[in-house]
Amino acid sequence: MGGLVSAGTMLPALRQDLSLHPGPADASGAPTWTLHDPAAHRFYEISWPAFELISRWSLGSAEAVLDAVARETTLRLGRQDLDALLNFLAQHHLLQPHSPEHSARLTRAAQAGRSSHAMWLLKHYLFFRVPLLRPEPFLRAIAPYTQWLFRPGFWWAVAGAAVLGLFLVSRRWDEFTHTFSAYSTLAGLLGLGLALSLAKLLHELGHAITAHRYGCRVPTMGVAFLVMWPVLYTDTNEAWKLTRREQRLRIASAGMLAELALAACATLAWTFLPEGPLRAGAFMLATSSWLITLGINASPFMRFDGYFLLADALNMPNLHERAFAMGRWWLREQLYGFDDPVPEVLPPARRRFLIAFAFATWLYRLVLFFGIALLVYHLFFKALGLLLLAVELGWFIALPIWRELRVWWRRRPDVHWNRRTRRSAVLLAGLLLWVGLPWRSGVQAPAVLSHRENQALYAVETAQQQGPAVAEGATVSEGQVLLRLASPELEQRLRLAEHQESLLRWQVEQQPLDQRLQQEGQALHRRWQAAREEVAGLQRQREQLELRAPFAGTVVTAHPMLADQAWFTRGEKLFQIVGRPDSLKVEAFVSEAQVAALRQHPTNTSRFVANLPEFGSLRCDALQLESVNLRSLPQPALASVYGGPISSVQQGGELRPLTATYRARLTQCEPRALGSELVGHVWLQGESRSLLAQGWQQLWALWRRESGL
Predict the structure, then answer these.
(1) Given CA atoms 657, 659, 660, 664 in this order, what sign does their dihedral have?
(2) Pair 278, 292 in one domain
(3) Angle at 220 between CA 228 and CA 115, to 5 degrees
């Protein structure tokens, strides 16, 4: 059907099972119709001219159809319009086979649609559907009992329940936010699972009941497996037969509205239910279920409820395909200036929206498919995971890009030197230079600047200050007394221990002369030794009540309540002492790739730049790299859980880095007055490398590590 229809040409017959239904008006107000193909269960929106041609198809010849349209309507259609319609009908297999050529075309299409078992598995293991039931009899049976769901009073009641539930929850907010952690038992997890199952069941019933209410047939309901995760689905494709857009919007939004109504009721129920699995399920319905619904189903970037809502709201069927066509056209025009016609004539605002929507969808799918590829890799054993990872990245990311690049290559004769191609060439050259030139010669890493000699002094016992103390900011020498404390409790314990020790010593001395003491044997000596050690320990504790400077330096922090006769509790920090200004050090934390670069081109010169602008920078001339990656992060200020730049998690009371992290110690730093630790970053001179080489090195290292080569 590729050529123009000549005069007197007999038209091929349409399939007898096709049906036409009135459709909504398009954006210009012109009427449309919906063509239903029941064999493929597809719906096609056709324009007014196409409808006029199809409605007179029984006239047989092309000339008779065109003459009838010209006589009976205001349209003036030509053979090109009829030829375009024939191409559309033939492409979608809507014509009866009328020639060997047509039969051969159908055979080729069927063969092209077939695939090997391996290819079928690669295409469908991520997403496939299992129909479970035909719900039409059930929907007809419950229809009289579900009319109240569509009355305004019901939704006003839901809104009231939501407001009341949120008000009551706000009065017990701390208890509400800690509900989930209280249900880690098997019964609690069972309640959560039942709650989620109920929410998803009501979601699909909402679609089915609403579609049935508006006269649409719901052929199947079942389970779809998305990355091996089961989710329910409902076939509501017949909603495209509806002429009123608000009815289609209600069908598409019914599932989310059902879950939101359930969440409102669950929020209110949580405030009244007793502790147990039911309350755990109500909490789950009131929080996670509707958040997941809005986060996944409301997204217009995949073919979920949000996509159909947006398509109906804009009155743009096949929104993704039309947006992608507009996005590809805009990209080609901006890069090469082909001066191709616009895929469809739309107002400028609508055209800009479609272009932006296309690029947003591509970016969303890029992130999503990359995440799915990583998920698939971790779901299976390593060899199969690597294979499936490569398949996912190739099929969903690399293949679409490759197809677009092939179009550009085929159209290279159409590329001419103009303003847009010159701009593209400049941008491409700049990008290649930025990626390919080895301009990155340094390594930047988060770091902490501190004194090599840095110590805090604490009260070892609850004690009372005796006399004056060294003031904050004072310069002290090694061994200088900073503060004297006295602990009456410690003195009492020491006197009791000394009395016990003297008694045991007398018994040991009298043991050779006393038969009763001789019966205790060496046990008496061990008790005396333990008493002596206790006395020695208490004496050391008493000595520690006299706080002395561990090294020469400066008192940077002193307790604000230091005064004669003041009391301090055990473990209370009293002083912070740092060494001389020339005893600074920097602890930097570098990645595995940065360690490799520094070892290939070792350097000793580095510069620390503090996050505090007025401090400036500091030069250090000695670098020492540790050869073993850190098990825990010693600097909490750099951990991501506290707002730092190093990705880490809290496990077992330690901060664990999520990636291999190595410590680099920098010494021989410039003398600088420093009161306490400073967070910043260091610049280390390393091998000059390009972004391309660095990325390839990281990918190769990742491949070798994960593949076990």
Answers:
(1) negative
(2) yes
(3) 55
151 and 287 belong to one structural domain:
yes
Please choose, from the candidates 262, 270, 329, the residue with its C-alpha nearest in 3D space to the C-alpha of residue 289: 262
- How far apart are the C-alpha atoms of 303 and 310, rounded to whole Å? 11
- Residue 461 to residues 544, 567, 568, Cα–Cα distance (Å): 9, 10, 8
Identify whether residues 292 and 344 lie together within a single domain: no
Do 666 and 702 fall within a single domain? yes
Q: Residues for the chain: how many in total? A: 709
Give the pLDDT score at 1.
42
Q: C-alpha angle 470/475/479, rounded to 5°?
A: 75
The distance from CA 387 to its chain's CA centroid, rounded to whole angstroms, is 24
Digit-coded pLDDT (tens) for 401-411: 999 999 999 98
Can you tell me which residue has the tokens 């390919």? 436
Cβ-contact 35, 57 below 8 angstroms: no
Number of domains in the chain: 5
Q: Residues near 419 by Cβ (< 8 Å), separated by ≥ 6?
A: 337
Report which of 621, 614, 615, 592 is spatially closest to residue 684, judged by C-alpha positions. Answer: 621
CB 385 within 8 A of CB 379: yes
The residue with tokens 């809502």 is 309
* Residue 284: per-residue pLDDT: 78
| Residues 662-692: tens digit of each pLDDT | 998 888 888 887 777 889 989 887 666 777 8
The C-alpha atoms of residue 593 and residue 68 are separated, in whole angstroms, by 75
pLDDT at 2: 44
What 3-state DSSP class applies to 351? helix
Residue 77 sits in which domain range?
19-113
Helices then strands, counting H and E runs in the chain, come out as 23, 22
pLDDT for residue 645 is more than 60: yes
Angle between helices 319-336 and 305-314 (to 10 degrees): 80
**Residue 499 located in a structural domain:** yes
Torsion sign, CA atoms 277, 283, 285, 288:
negative
Sequence letter at residue 312: D
On whether both 379 and 462 belong to a single domain, the answer is no
Burial class (CB in 10 A: 0-12, 13-18, 19+), 554: buried
Look-up of token digits 């997403």 = 127
* Pair 594, 517 in one domain: no
- Is the pLDDT at 193 greater than 60? The verdict is yes
Same domain, 306 and 187: yes
Domain boundary among 553, 577, 601: 577
Rounded Cα gap, residues 165 and 275, in angstroms: 17
- pTM score, two decimals? 0.64
**Average pLDDT, integer, range 422-444:** 83
